[in-house]
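Folded chain entry —
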Amino acid sequence: MSVTTGSVPFEVPIDIDELRKLFLFERLSDEQLTKLAASGAVRSYAQDEVIIRQGDPAECFAVLIEGEVQMFQETVSAGTVALPRASQPGVYAGATSAYLGDRGPQTYQHSLRALAPSRMFLLPARKFAHIVAEWFPMAMHLLDGIWTGGRMQREIIDRRQRLTALGTITAGLTHELNNPAAAAVRAVGELRTLLRTSRMQLAQLAEDGIPPERLRALIETQESCAEAVGKLPPRSPLEISDAEDDLAEALDELGVDDAWDLAPALVAAGFGRQHLDKVRRKAGEEHVTGAIRWLSKAVEISQMLGEVTDATERISTLIRSAKQYSQMDRAPFQICDVHELLDSTVAIFRGKIPPGISVVTDYDRSLPPIPAYGGELNQVWTNLIHNALDAMGEEGTLTIRTAYDEDEAIIEVGDTGPGVPDAIKDRIFEPFFTTKSVGNGTGLGLDISYRIVAGRHGGEIKVRSVPGQTWFEVRLPLREPAAAPAPES
């Protein structure tokens, strides 16, 4: 009998007594063990030799007889994931789903490497599938259902988790964009009216016969007032109110209609009673009333332009935060500023943070940039911040801080919620484990975070918690992790 892995043939029989010692086969009859022994064979592997390579055709079901092995799996989201070492005789790997036939994976879903000189019992996949179907027909149907159902469930929940995270981000970003966008729309609407009025007033001054040189001097006054908008020293509301009253009285004395409506805009530009004489000299006594009205509208136009500028800058800042958050314009792996990543995530969340929750950041600015997958780390911060906000409800303090510990960056997210009970601390990173009510959590957020931090970046994530103070601590290496060694032939 000849068995192969890849293209290397060998022929080493096995005794049924040796098979019986393996927990996987301990309850088989002598007849079954004899058929099993005749269907497979043994191969020895040297230390660090590859037994099974992920992606190769799934041709063998492998069972450890003696030695030590370790399984590796290359994943999209978490990079190379290494399972714990195994030395117990009877552990198995390889074409474990061969009984599914064409519905199962046709290639190995993992790699297996010998960590010490090892002996493996190798059973061809087609014979393994036939044995399972013939000896355990009911179990085969149960396993088929569990495998298929489990895969579908994981795909559905993974998709839902991604959509939920996207919905949270989109809702927060939409809320934040709405305010400056609405302010810009309102300001532009007012600008149309102000510009129309200003043009009419300027035309009226021209019809009234104001000399060109006086008009030029008036425009220069308007420019200086416009530049002063938003740049004046801060004043208290009472001081502003007194200045508006004083200017309105002076305008009223000049016979300016609507003096009390014109005064606020002029005061915002630093215009006071002492400036009226300058306007009278520049515009002329007969044109001072029209000049003041036009000057007031010109200043309001400058104020509206300032509001539009502030609103559009806020929108640009939010878009930059979203761009930084998604890392959509950058290579997946890069040198990242952790503080920029954290700030962009907080900016995305700003609209979802209740008014009763304060956000405190305590950054160690000496922390250097780190090599990382920025977009994936943002998913970690999203999950941790989202959990912290859920824990606190409507009131509390969200604290984000960083530190620098020799060759590691430390990022901590803390909340003042009720804390994580000791009984479940060891389980919170398990997939599908959640303390939230049905429909409010999938139990994948912390599992995904763990896989990104530990599997993808070679870091560490842990929790410490007492009532009123919970901290999730993420440690990331400051140096790029060495690539996982390529399997050797």
